[in-house]
Design goal:
Layout: E1 2-15, E2 27-35, E3 39-51, E4 57-69, E5 72-85, E6 88-95, E7 108-116, E8 119-127
Antiparallel strand pairs: 1-2, 1-8, 2-3, 3-4, 4-5, 5-6, 6-7, 7-8
Amino acid sequence: MKHVTGAFEVKLAPQAAEESGGGAGVARMLIDKTFHGELDATSKGQMLAAGSAAGSGGYVAMEIVTGALGGKKGTFALQHSGTMNRGVPTLVLTVVPDSGTGELVGLVGKMDIVMEGGKHSYVFDYSLPE
């Protein structure tokens, strides 16, 4: 597995709740990211989230990443699953199996997101076939 890190910017655009998709209790957002470093890419995606007044909640998201990873070009899908249990976060981001295209065919891996001082960064552990 290769281990790379870098910064990214993210823009979240809230969307109207869909009554047939959970109603007002389910927030829906569009995701727009720009990654820097060994992952030189942009992504577009969608998020669904719900929360409570007790500081708990959860979200799921899918995003399609387009660009270069370690100099290899292509796209891949990232699947998010996040839970906040009374302020304690758990987050899993996984490369969707067989989602890699171009020079990223066969990509497997997982990503962690770090938020410090109002800035976002990623830690990405991945492998590609030889």
